[in-house]
Write a structure and sequence with these properties.
There is one protein chain. It contains twelve helices and 23 strands. By secondary structure, the protein is α/β, with parallel strands linked by helices. A seven-stranded mixed β-sheet has the order 1-2-7-8-9-10-11. Strands 17, 18, 19, 20, 21, 22 and 23 form a seven-stranded mixed β-sheet that branches. It has a five-stranded mixed β-sheet with strand order 12-13-14-15-16, with no helix packed on it. Helix 6 packs across helix 7. The longest helix has 19 residues. The chain is elongated and about 80 Å long. The structure holds MU-OXO-diiron (FEO). The site of MU-OXO-diiron has 8 residues, from helix 2.
Amino acid sequence: MTQIKKLSENVYWLGINDRKTHLFENLWPIDKGVSYNSYIICDEKVALIDTVETGAISKFMEKLDGVLNGRTIDYLVINHLEPDHSAGIPAVIERFPNIKLIGNNNTAKFLSGYFNINHNFQLVKDLEEIDLGQTKLKFYMTPMIHWPETMMTYTTSEEILFSGDAFGTFGALDGGLFDDELNFDDYENEMRRYYSNIVGKYGKHVQKAIQKLSGTSVKMIASTHGPVWRKDISKVISLYDKWSKYETEDGVVIVYGSMYGNTEKMADSIAFALKDEGIHNIKVYNASKTHLSYILSDIFKYKGLIIGTPTYNAGVYPPIEALISTIEHSEIKNHLLGIFGSCTWVGGGVKKLIEWSEKIGWEMVADPFENISVSENKSIVQCNTIAKNMAAKLMNK
Ligand code: FEO
């Protein structure tokens, strides 16, 4: 049985839910699954927008056959060449050898490099249109959301924006395609996790795209992952706008590594002290247990980050090292920072965290400290100071 859903009279969703894969990009947990969304517009001419991931090709081709009912496809629009959307291209070309592939210069380059395909390629430029009959397709170049070739495609009649990864989310489609058929609250956290994990580095490019599209009337946003937005369009755009400007809420993420519980004790002390100072949103994570995907998502949400590490081989504890490296590469901005740690004979972990903090340029709320076999009393004073200063900055005292 094949589910074929329509976005409008002539536009169909050909997406596939994936609840088998554990790690998206072999990196990010997807406990709630993910969908790979492809769409097809059946006008006087037929245009397919993107394909699906490699494990979903046979289901996708079955759906495609069901919609086409013997018709051929004129165009395959490649909004994004990352393989979760392009893996089906060779199968589509094999079935429809006369199909024209639509993309930009980078699309052509990557298509050749990835698949050795140099087939019937039609180059399009920013704001160029092609005519399908009743509707036209208009192309908006939106590089780095999230690869250099990424573009968006807009239908002039139904005003549907096929946005690629932008406005996408983790989470398979549980029984509904449109946002009004689903519970938005089920997706908001997954959407922020998707944004922070996949697109977060490219905030300035998301801002450019939002500005570029600001004068365009959009009735539906059909991204490559997650629901088609037709009810909460402005909410979805405002969330992406907020995250891409690194705007945060008042709250603190405390992340620690701890082998024998000493750094963990300090993390708990700081958390309780923050609560006493009036901070309500506090998330405490053991970096050895919680995947950094979730920690990163909360760092995008909250203004404050306090990191604690034991010294390990004269440096930062490895799970914390992975986290700080990801923060640096994601180019996250506008946060408040606190640093603490512990060691038994010679330090080094906190020194490395300080060096890292100088590179990312966040505001430090208190002097970092590293406890070398000091009394518990001194440690409590230091934890209280970091909590007090963080709370004061958050509450503008
Ligand atoms: Fe969903 Fe950047 O691929």
